[in-house]
Amino acid sequence: MNNKIVVITGAGSGLGASLAKKYAKDGYHVCLLGRTEDKLERTAKDLPNENHSIFPVDVSSKREVSQVFTKIKENLGTVDVLVNNAGVGVFDLAENLSEDEVHQMIDINIKGTIFCTQEVLSDMKERNSGSILNIVSTAGLEGKKTESVYCASKFGMRGFHESLLVELEKTNIHVFGAYMGGMKTEFWDGIYDESQTAGLMDPEDIADIIYHNAKTRKNLNVEQVVIKNH
Description:
seven-stranded parallel beta sheet, Rossmann fold
């Protein structure tokens, strides 16, 4: 197939779904990855064309990630753009977080990013092209109350992102990091009520900023953008 291929993790809602629309409009074959198949199908219904594929996956499982990326390569071709967007947050004082909640944030936010990136690096290096977009969050820039482990996971993601920049600086592979504040998405369901999410940013706006800044351009490289609420 001649289409360029983009893989978006956490594509079932929010920013992942908004980014999927951007890439679909630009003619990419969009691979929607996420834990919940019906959410991915909902995203797919909103895309402007049929040029997409759905892959249910738990990004914290190296085995599942490898299987999905092997399928993508065999059925569609090599990945041109990887968007590491899958993320989960549980917000409470540090001492109140359960073992499962700690594992979930570290496993999905850091390990998921690493496992997915590992799957595309060899091909990207071989072709000396490609883009890796790491959706980090401002929680990767500063500690926040009731977000200790979430911030720890995002600081870890940032460390991985910044190291990739160094590892790939002599290549034509574009590594881009997005550090944005809270968005009005399902991420906050059960955490904030309607009045608390009313002032949050629109994921469509964030997707627009990320999409345009992450585009590869001649003689320049945008390594990161920081997007904050007013």
